[in-house]
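User: Can you help me understand a structure? I only have the sequence.
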Amino acid sequence: MEGASRGAGDAGGMYIGCNIELPFEQFLNPYRDKFVEFEHFFVRKVMLVKYSSAFIVMPGGFGTLDEVFEVVTLIQTAKLESFPVVVMGGEFWKELDDFLRNTMLAEGTISEADLQVISPADSPADALSIIEAGCPACE
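Assistant: Let's start by predicting it. Here is the structure, written out as tokens:
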């Protein structure tokens, strides 16, 4: 998240970090303007979603997948106002996209419209174009 927080600061914006208390891996970002620290993942996810108008997701681990699928599920079930979910680094997400299409879609557990909520991008310009266009499945 260093890139996002530094970029926000360089552009004159503010970056507020939503940190989670973990026994390892997680450290406060030194480039944040302010932060809120959470003990539980579900509270952090609620706060991340509550004030979002788009999600830009960087390659990550289980926590990243948890957050992406939570947001997509909330959009899919209309429990959350629809907005673009952009996954950065298309190659990183390719095998997951293949699984979603070749297994879940093929088995009928998700629809083609569900897949349209997630948009891959390989550059910041691509991500911005996707966000400006809005979510194709969110209309």
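Now, to help you interpret it: The chain has a mean pLDDT of 84. Strands lie at 16-20, 34-38, 55-57, 85-88, 118-121. Let me know which part you'd like to focus on.
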